[in-house]
UniProtKB/TrEMBL annotation:
Keywords: Membrane, Transmembrane, Transmembrane helix. The chain crosses the membrane at residues 6-27. InterPro entries: DUF881. Belongs to the UPF0749 family. This is DUF881 domain-containing protein. It comes from Clostridium simiarum.
């Protein structure tokens, strides 16, 4: 009887200890649960969407290149000229997009001169003179707004604007592509006429600010604008294709 009571006591004690251990594990699990803030959730959500977009872009690139590869494989030995012609067409298209070819299309011509006139060529007040002078920083701001308004090609006094073209002050000139350009500045822009009308019709633009400073700005819509190609050499020394790393 005493032996059975001992066994019962040990059995009951084991049950109690097991329940306590289980309850303690449950408490620890509930205590260690983490919650993220709204900001952290939004950041994670944005990262996920960015990854989805990158995957989608990579898939499109893959299918485009896969189609090109198959088209090259399908060409027989007697049709090598056709393959070469396709490659050359693509090369010319890329040159056009990059800015190495002369292009034409609808757009707008902007003419900018300093806020001086023949009756008042000199302004003694240095601040007023500075305000009525068109600076390289003004040109940079204007270029950025034109690009955001749908400009597909831009030239300034005949200089094609490239992705790495410098725009800086050089005494009384503005230097672009290593060429010093004097005022007045003639900015030819090719792009959607509807978007340009919206931009030039808005009161909240940098052009309106320039005009408010007394700088002379005029623009003219044109059905056909010719923009020359870039005649220099685009040197790339440090760019590496990330896909090949």
């Amino acid at each position: 009887m005493k032996l059975n009571e001992g066994k019962i006591f040990v059995f009951v004690a084991a049950i109690i200890i097991g329940v306590l251990i289980s309850f303690n594990i449950h408490l620890n699990t509930a205590t260690e649960r983490e919650y993220i803030s709204t900001k952290e959730y939004q950041e994670a959500y944005n990262r996920r969407n960015k990854l989805y977009r990158e995957i989608s872009d990579l898939k499109e690139d893959y299918y485009d290149n896969y189609k090109k590869l198959n088209s090259y494989k399908d060409e027989s030995q007697n049709k090598n000229d056709k393959v070469i012609e396709t490659i050359m067409d693509e090369l010319e298209s890329n040159k056009t997009i990059l800015g190495y070819k002369q292009v034409q299309g609808e757009g707008i011509e902007v003419t900018i001169t300093d806020g001086f006139n023949e009756l008042n060529p000199d302004i003694e007040d240095p601040l007023l003179r500075y305000m009525r002078t068109f600076h390289n920083t003004d040109l940079i701001q204007l270029i950025n707004e034109l690009k955001s308004s749908g400009a597909e090609a831009i030239s300034i006094n005949g200089q094609r604007l490239m992705n790495n073209s410098e725009v800086y002050c050089s005494s009384a000139f503005i230097s672009i592509n290593g060429v010093k350009l004097p005022a007045p500045f003639y900015i030819d822009v090719i792009g959607s006429m509807d978007k340009f009308r919206t931009y030039f019709g808005s009161n909240d633009t940098y052009i309106k600010r320039l005009q408010g400073r007394g700088i002379n700005v005029s623009f003219e819509e044109k059905e056909e604008i010719n923009i020359p190609g870039y005649i220099g050499e685009l040197k790339v020394n440090y760019l590496i294709n990330a896909k090949n790393k």
